[in-house]
Design brief:
The protein has 284 residues and is α+β, with helices and mostly antiparallel strands. It is 50% helix and 16% strand.
């Protein structure tokens, strides 16, 4: 029994002796995958280790970038956007105050100039007419107001045969405001006010996103456009405008806001902003 190969003691003795080690080497001297794998693992760097080091390095870079961007704040919120929005509103409000202050100073300058400017009555009358046409003086008369507003965000097509709305269909665009202003001028408007500002020949009605930028100030819908003139002619011009007819399709299908009211006698304010033209100049 002591020479049996099944004996644990014999197995232990063979494996630990020199002869057993030599025999093991002879049997694996061929193309054994196990032997080849051990040799390559001990002789070079395992790819798994390189991949692990790369993953940890990338994670460290991401953490550092997040820390450097956050600067101790929560980057998961819209606080930065809110701050930018507040800054825009603050600047817009400041521009409004400066316009009012500029208007007061202009009135003072005109009052001083009228004391003794050496002009004749005919020249004064001509100057007054020019100021009235330029929109810098108050204007009284019968007026109408057009109000445009965005559609509800969850609006759907109200009429059959129309596709479901895209987000772009549900907001007021620059061309909508321009269409109303152009139609009112065509209808004989003597003066137009958009929101709380009088339009002049150099005024530009522009939209960025769903906000209106007019003469340095920012507005959100609903947008109100008031015009002084013959109410009947003004409303007829609105109804005949092709651009407004196209807008009315969106009003009826998707619920964009549209309202026209007669205001009776009103007084439009004079334009109080700067009248100096600003333009690019070549670098010398």
């Amino acid at each position: 029994m002591s020479n049996s190969a099944d004996s644990p003691e014999a197995g232990s003795g063979d494996s630990s002796g020199p002869g057993a080690g030599t025999a093991g080497t002879t049997e694996s001297d061929g193309s054994s995958p196990l032997a080849t794998g051990d040799a390559s693992a001990r002789g070079g760097v395992r790819p798994v280790r390189v991949l692990t080091v790369g993953v940890f390095a990338l994670a460290g870079l991401i953490f550092f970038t997040s820390f450097d961007t956050a600067k101790g704040t929560n980057i998961r919120t819209d606080a930065s956007l809110l701050k930018l929005s507040d800054l825009i509103q603050e600047r817009s409000h400041k521009n409004g105050q400066l316009d009012e202050s500029n208007g007061v100073l202009r009135d003072d300058v005109e009052a001083l100039a009228e004391r003794d400017d050496g002009s004749t009555e005919a020249e004064d009358a001509r100057l007054t007419a020019l100021e009235k046409n330029a929109g810098t003086q108050r204007l009284k008369g019968q007026a109408i107001t057009v109000t445009l507003n965005d559609a509800p965000p969850n609006a759907t097509a109200k009429l059959p045969g129309y596709p479901e709305p895209q987000p772009d269909y549900l907001v007021i665009h620059q061309q909508d405001l321009q269409a109303v202003v152009n139609a009112l001028w065509l209808g004989g408007a003597k003066g137009i006010k958009v929101m709380d500002q009088r339009l002049i020949s150099t005024s530009a009605v522009r939209c960025v996103g769903n906000t209106l930028i007019l003469q340095g100030r920012v507005y959100s819908p609903p947008y109100k456009i008031q015009a002084v003139g013959d109410p009947e002619k003004l409303q007829k011009a609105l109804a005949e405008s092709k651009a407004i007819q196209n807008y009315m399709v969106y009003v009826n299908v998707y619920g964009l806001g549209w309202k026209v009211t007669e205001d009776g006698p009103v007084t439009l304010p004079g334009y109080s902003g700067t009248v100096d033209l600003q333009y690019a100049k070549p670098v010398e």
